[in-house]
User: Which sequence fits this backbone?
């Protein structure tokens, strides 16, 4: 019996080390003061902007991925972002059909996962229909000490991310380009869902244990005057 238990622990370590998230690991902290939006204001072009998410089973197997819709503004002064905020429509959570194989999921489809994510097991969208991100600071990316999966990252962005009733400050690298008429922001970072209390069932529930705590977020934001 003891041998079986040891083998089970060993197997779980191996699984946890395989695959998994591949974004920049976001630094997290307590809620911070929101930066004042100074200068010109640019609004999200919702037709081309996107927020992508990717979650994993333990060990990185059978990832689930999809999109979310959002709208918001970014402010710029002297060619640099001063602040910004955007609202995420949690009712818009959509799982890519190719992410769920009904033959492997007991007949469940991507649409079934969308419905489940909207329940009290996760986002509870009837009570919390939106999430929110508000920029608290934007600094220059220092290639001598900062690392990123984003090629040619230019900045480090910090902001308060509110999901349900929990606000956590997250910091991540990004590639920002600013012109007279458009701002583009690209980033790919990883958060821990438990920081926002997003758990499937009670603490220690086997259902929750089978899901990785890490979730990848990919931002491709275009904002225009």
Assistant:
């Amino acid at each position: 019996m003891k041998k079986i238990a040891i083998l089970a622990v060993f197997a779980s370590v191996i699984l946890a080390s395989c695959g998994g998230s591949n974004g920049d690991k976001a630094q997290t902290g307590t809620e911070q003061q929101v930066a004042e939006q100074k200068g010109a204001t640019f609004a999200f072009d919702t037709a081309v902007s996107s927020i992508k998410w990717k979650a994993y089973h333990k060990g990185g197997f059978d990832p689930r991925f999809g999109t979310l819709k959002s709208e918001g503004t970014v402010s710029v002064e002297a060619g640099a972002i001063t602040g910004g905020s955007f609202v995420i429509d949690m009712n818009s959570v959509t799982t890519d059909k190719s992410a769920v194989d009904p033959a492997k999921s007991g007949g469940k489809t991507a649409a079934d996962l969308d419905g489940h994510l909207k329940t009290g097991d996760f986002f509870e969208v009837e009570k919390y229909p939106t999430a929110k991100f508000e920029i608290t600071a934007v600094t220059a990316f220092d290639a001598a000490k900062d690392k990123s999966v984003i090629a040619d990252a230019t900045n480090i962005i910090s902001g308060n991310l509110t999901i349900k009733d929990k606000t956590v400050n997250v910091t991540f690298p990004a590639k920002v380009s600013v012109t007279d008429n458009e701002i583009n922001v690209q980033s790919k970072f990883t958060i821990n869902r438990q920081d926002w209390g997003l758990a499937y069932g009670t603490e220690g529930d086997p259902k929750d244990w089978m899901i990785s705590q890490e979730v990848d977020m990919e931002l491709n934001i275009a904002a225009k005057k």
Remarks:
- Residues 54 and 65 are 4 Å apart (CA to CA).
- The longest helix spans residues 2-17.
- Residues 2-224 form a domain with the Lipocalin fold (CATH 2.40.128.110).
